[in-house]
Amino acid sequence: MTVVSDVPDLATLQRRAAERAAARAGGADRLRGHIVCDGLVRIFTSEGVEVVALQGLDLVVDRGELLAIVGASGSGKSTVLNILSGLDTPTAGIARVAGYDLLTMSAAKRLAYRRHTVGFVWQQTGRNLLPYLTARENVELPMRLSRRGGRAARRRAAELLEMVGVGYCADRRPGQMSGGEQQRCAVAVAVANDPEVLFADEPTGELDEVTAGDVFAALRTINAELGVTVVVVTHDLQVASQVRRTVSIRDGRTASEVHRIARLGADGVEELVTEEYAVLDRAGRMQFPAGFVDALALRDRVRLTLETDHVQVRSGDERSAR
Ligand SMILES: Nc1ncnc2c1ncn2[C@@H]1O[C@H](COP(=O)(O)OP(=O)(O)OP(=O)(O)O)[C@@H](O)[C@H]1O
């Protein structure tokens, strides 16, 4: 069993996660679209005022992926996560996770979905762990509640704590552990019942950079070793260096994606490169990264020219066009 300190590089983890996920799914051809959001809309009404939190969000996450959703405060990140985790219902659109239709699901199915298909890690450590139980007892608890107690549960709890690098905390209560250790323990609790998908909402929001890195290492290990699809929501833009794909949300829509991919460099050595993509929705709309808009002072209208293999975008300002 792999422990956090032995974690291999991102590319190796990516391959391992894909292999484990394919094994879970029953073949590599069944990996596509573990999570699908299509034209997802969520409108809140409070005191007669409508707030459009999501306005046609598109997102596809494959089985076994490790994905971060980033965005400024109020961009709609928590709204997406609440919908995907079955806590909230969308107003319109498509939201499907592991074959469950989150719009039409009955209350009984929703409960089963939340108990067995998905796991959660929340920002507040107090929401993840019971303070009067040890780390091992916290991890055992979900299994006991699902009638999977006994020696097997004890063994799995110990293995999971080792896997996320806090095996040495097994007999400590949360109050005797650091914030980072508690969050890694929370990751073990979240996957105790072997969910297909793990959602984490700002899991490192209360941690410093180094400790946050340990928590991400734990999430990567769980993703690679168990083949669990992992979706992390955060406002921390630095997170792109910790995961393979980062989706950025702006104004309730998918704005752009950053992919980290392994490539062979000129010297024959494998290197990780970062590529940024804008997301085109079905109506052909896309959002430019804010940095591009600022750099060229793009405003209101832009001039488009179709070339043989690309589209050129220039300022629509007559003076700068001359
Ligand atoms: N229950 C609600 N009632 C009314 N408006 C809401 C509700 N929940 C969210 N909103 C609004 O929807 C928009 C998106 O909120 P959301 O919490 O998803 O953003 P976020 O990106 O997670 O922000 P943060 O990083 O600050 O948590 C915001 O304008 C917010 O005020």
Automatic annotation (TrEMBL):
Record keywords, A-Z: ATP-binding, Nucleotide-binding, Transport
SMART domains: AAA (SM00382)
ABC transporter domain sequence ranges: 35-276
GO MF term (any one): ATP binding
SUPFAM superfamilies: P-loop containing nucleoside triphosphate hydrolases
PANTHER family listed in its UniProt record: ABC TRANSPORTER RELATED, IMPORT ATP-BINDING PROTEIN
Protein name: ABC transporter ATP-binding protein
